[in-house]
Amino acid sequence: MRSHFCKPLLILIALLWLTTTAWAQSTITLPGIKPFVATVNDHVLNVAPEQLYIHTDKPNYSSGDTLWFKAYLFNAALLEASAKSGVLYVEVANDSNKVIKRIIVPVYTGLAAGQIVLDEEYTQDGYILRAYTNWMRNMVEECIFKKHFYIANTKGDDWLVDYNATLSQQTDKQHVELNLRVNQLDKTPVMVREMQMRLTDGRRTLLKDNVQTDLSGMIKVNFNLPDQVTTKNLTISIQDLRKGSENRKLLVPLTFNRPANIDLQFMPESGRLVAGLQTNIAFKAIGEDGLGTKVEGDICDSKMQTITSFKSAYKGMGVFPFLPLSGESYTARIKQANGTYLTYPLPPVTANGLSLRLSNTFKSDSCYIRLNASADLIAAGGTFYLIGIAREKICYGAAFNATTLPANLKIDKSIFPTGVVRFIVVDAQQNPVNERLAYIDHADNLNIKLIPSQNQYGLRDSVALDVTVTTKDGQPVKGSFSLAVTDDAQVKIDSLQANTIGNYLQLTSNLKGTLETPGYYSNAASSALKWQHLDNLLLTQGWVGYDWADAFKPLKTFAFAAEQEPVITGRVTNAFNKPVANSGVTLVSKNPPLVNSTVTNQQGKFAFQNIISPDTAVYFIQAVNKNGKSFNVGIEMDEFKAPLFTTSTERTLPWYVNVDSTVFRSLKKQLEFKTDQERILGGNVLKAVKVNAKKIIKGSKNLNGPGEADVVIDQATLEKAGRTTLGDLLTQHIKGFLLSLSKDNGLYYSIRGAAVHLIIDGVDIEFAHDKSTSGSIIQNPTYLMLKQYFDYYDAEEIKGIEVMYGGGKSGRYTNFFLDPGASPYKHAFIEVTTRSGHGPFVKKAIGTYVYRPMPFTMPKQFYAPKYKANATPDMTAIRSTIHWEPNVITDENGKATVSFFTSDSAGSYSIMIEGTDLNGSVGTKTGRLLVKRNL
After folding, report:
1. Domain 711-837, second-level architecture
2. How far is CA 766 from CA 280, 298, 381, 584, 818, in A?
3. What is the pLDDT of residues 102-145, one digit of tens each?
4. pTM above 0.90, yes or no
5. For 50-151, which CATH class?
6. If residue 45 lies in a helix (H) or strand (E), which one and from where to where?
7. Which residues contact 499 (CB under 8 A, 6 or more apart)?
8. CATH class belonging to 567-637
9. Better pLDDT: 314 or 251
């Protein structure tokens, strides 16, 4: 079903006449509104802003899990499949904003899927999943999709921490009283244990001391905070000092909630307080922990006379009516327990201006707007525009003259799509005067039904789940959906924290700041109380997606181009950095085997299109003259430059801190599963095997596997070497590395008589000199070429060096890089892993460039085991994500079937399916499966 809202023909053009008590809606047109609306909507079509949603298989993860995801990329105006981008960037960053992993996935008709393995690089911590297209980088950062999650690493001997902390002012010091209890997972206290406690602020250690738990596992400490320390990023770490247990360390975010430090903000409806004009004032109170907090108090005038009172309704938010008077200033007062008051100034009262008041009553089919202005503004006259923007397009427009004010207007909600509508008053010079957000809910999201083949299932039982999708009116829908099934015993799904595709696209992506419980608002239209809470949210946390006023300026050139396909681009320049036109450019790769050529345009630019790069892809790019020879030019590649996002202010509470009963039961269940699996699979036997530690170079492309080399120079050694060159490092650490003389008196490097080959980040510096291509691109490498690299790189640029010589470790390298039949005993290979990971690059190189693109990550199939009938459960088939299916495609009858098997875990399973018809409609449905041990 294609969305019929917000089409240009449905725009309402109205003239507001003076009214008193009646609500009017007229269609008499003032000049200027039609071209005004057309200009803005044409701008939106040209810009084509994109909106992105990511569905993951579960909200949080354990170490070693795989994060499975499905991406939905829309044209923001119509919620249709975006035709702008075909490349999607997905990354995981930790709480310090360090990117741990970044991948790119191809997008087809607005859809993409992929996975990220949460391996040993991911420590137990909070993380953020970010996703964006290159085109989305032209918009504000709030347009980027972000999702917080936590990675836990639970073990049987883990500790749980419960704590409370109070902060008080004593003379000139901030004094902390900390009560911290440490328990084992079975709730027995960790008694009489000596520990080291540190207090840090994220960058430095503020305090350090040895402490001891008492018989109840309690630690009680009092200390003063150092001067000029903010409490925002304080963390307590406790480390076990028992011999052999020093690696046990827990980090506990130290938060305080002092009433005196409440941040209370007041936001007048439509933007300002105008003397003599009735309005509403919204407010939000935020505690020291960054979350909404209850608050109530009084509003006083300049003589400290109480004018009205206020009280928060939900998550520290509320609203109250107010009539500001000319020449007055107002203050909010909150009475504290000790009888003193906290005071907060309200925004200043302006003598003149225009006000907008909106009423969006529960279950009403219309919005009611009252416009008014100060007497001087009414007397001066002037044209203004009231516009209603939904999904970045103007769906409603009205022109009015100030002399007609005050005015009341009734606006039919049916002209807007479901979601947030921005009502804006604009003057004749296109300057915004007032703004107010409202939510429209037509209850028209897709209707999804999940029908399991049985009422309940056994262990390792076959499940057939029928999916039916229809419109609000019962018409079948053909669309694309993603489905996750998780074990409730291991995965806690909090409906208040869940952000579904409809809730995200239609509501939360239009908001700024921390949205504590997005799931609470997903069914706001079913409750008058929630509907009011939702309106409070829009009054306090609304934001502008892009500056629509840009529509009246010439279309600007965007910094980031939309990427519809994989393209390798660059520029050829001469010695004076001028573009070289009509230069031949050759691209060569050994793995995959590829030779491609092109010619630069008049700006010296070149492009190689439709090249899907696998993980190991490395390209040698060379500019050549008409004779196919390299010449004195430079190549500048358009390398991907990662965006810098602001660091999140949200602090993720670790799973082991202040654990509630629901999480505790889930933890116990997970540990029971682990214990059973170790018992059945012989985990204790495996623990007895002694494994000799190897020096492992992170990011190494070693063909033999991590640490499989004759000599490894690791990062610790390199850090001590400072600016020592690569050549000197080899001389110092590789026995038998020297400069030799061949039979024809040529110089070459060797290790124990074997000729040296240099591999940098998996790239043989000789690979571009393959004679199998039409003519050798440049001469075979010589001693001088190797020396150039040995002199160019130093220890500070290198993460690790691995050396393979003789048949044992060099065999795979010989087979991979050299001609068939070459003897591994005559060749030695030096694998260098650089910090940049970009492969061999020497600034002195002329007309050449080694280019390692970011590879595409192709979606893998979720491992779904298939069991024979009457298979015996033995606790080896335990998984938190029971099934993940990213491509549930409904047919023309709106139907699809998903099949999978239950695991060895009995109990209830949660089902979450969501998706779109890619024509403006989205939908979500949750369900449950009951699994019994004995049917």
Report:
1. Beta Complex (2.170)
2. 73, 78, 78, 21, 10
3. 999 999 999 999 999 998 788 888 899 999 999 999 888 888 99
4. no
5. mainly beta
6. helix 33-47
7. 147, 508, 518, 519
8. mainly beta
9. 314
